[in-house]
């Protein structure tokens, strides 16, 4: 299979597949003409990586998951722990997003949004910018 065929079947852009090859996640054979020759195993790896990336796993997590997937003697506890760690990171990011949302909602509610120049949103951004600078000093 050539790269465009495997890209279509795996649901990944060609550029992404080239990147995954560059960093060693997949290693397709090369034909006598120098072109990549992907087989079914490469296709399954790429689909696996695509699904893991869609779930937010990092490239390094994907590397670890592939290693575990290919290790038939693996303990599922390692896979579970890697996934639990990823889930905890998602929960942390969600908490940050909820805090950002609450702050923005409070600022929107505080702003009259009329023709006057005073704006609590801009005041907050300014005040926190000065506070951040003084925290560094």
TrEMBL record:
GO terms, biological process: positive regulation of DNA-templated transcription
Keyword Iron-sulfur attributed: no
Gene3D superfamilies, A to Z: 1.10.1660.10
Subcellular location: Cytoplasm
First-listed, main subcellular location of the protein, grouped into a coarse class: cytoplasm
Keywords of this entry: Coiled coil, Cytoplasm, DNA-binding, Transcription, Transcription regulation
Gene Ontology, cellular component aspect: cytoplasm
CDD domains the record matches: HTH_CueR
SMART domains (UniProt xref): HTH_MERR
Regions annotated as coiled coil: 80-110
InterPro entries for this protein: CueR, DNA-bd_dom_put_sf, MerR-type_HTH_dom, MerR_fam, Tscrpt_reg_MerR_DNA-bd
One example GO MF annotation: copper ion binding
UniProt-listed PROSITE patterns: HTH_MERR_2
Domain called HTH merR-type: residue spans: 1-68
NCBIfam families, sorted: CueR
Protein name as it appears in the record: Cu(I)-responsive transcriptional regulator
Source organism (scientific name): Oceanicola granulosus (strain ATCC BAA-861 / DSM 15982 / KCTC 12143 / HTCC2516)
């Amino acid at each position: 299979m050539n790269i465009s065929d495997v890209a279509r079947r795996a649901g990944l852009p060609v550029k992404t597949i080239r990147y995954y090859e560059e960093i060693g996640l997949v290693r397709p054979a090369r034909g006598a003409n120098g072109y990549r020759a992907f087989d079914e195993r490469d296709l399954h790896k790429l689909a696996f990586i695509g699904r893991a990336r869609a779930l937010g796993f990092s490239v390094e997590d994907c590397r670890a998951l592939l290693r575990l997937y290919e290790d038939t003697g693996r303990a599922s506890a390692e896979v579970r722990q890697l996934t639990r760690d990823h889930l905890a990171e998602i929960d942390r990011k969600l908490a940050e997003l909820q805090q950002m949302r609450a702050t923005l909602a409070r600022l929107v509610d505080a702003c009259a949004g009329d023709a006057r120049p005073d704006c609590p949103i801009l005041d907050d951004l300014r005040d926190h910018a000065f506070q951040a600078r003084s925290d560094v000093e």
